[in-house]
Please model this.
Amino acid sequence: MMPRKLIRNEEGAAVVEMAFALPAFIVLVWMIVQLGLVFRAMSGIQHALGEGARAATLWPVPDTDEIEDRMNEAVYGIGPGEFTVVDAVPGEADGSDYLDLEVTYTQPTDLLLLPGPTISVSRSKRVWVSESD
Model:
């Protein structure tokens, strides 16, 4: 028969509980950091689209290569992700000229020891440009 003192002894229970909870907490904090990197990249995407829109509304209207170069210079972000400025697509709707600008950000994630999902964020903006007449 076991002594009652051993059955009721709860010394070290906090250490065991911490051993179970700490790895999950560390992974959760790491995921929040990676999500913060994606939000920073989204801010860089919006900034690049704004700079491209600003460049597209100038008179005389610059060609699409100049607009894309301006967007590539303006985009910012850190981490293992990759920014891609998609070719500006000129179009015409109701007699008005416009450009469709788009920037894409792709970042592979990891959960410290395990690979995570690849996050891809894309934003686009339609810019009405000055008429060339």
Summary: The CA atoms of residues 81 and 107 lie 4 Å apart.
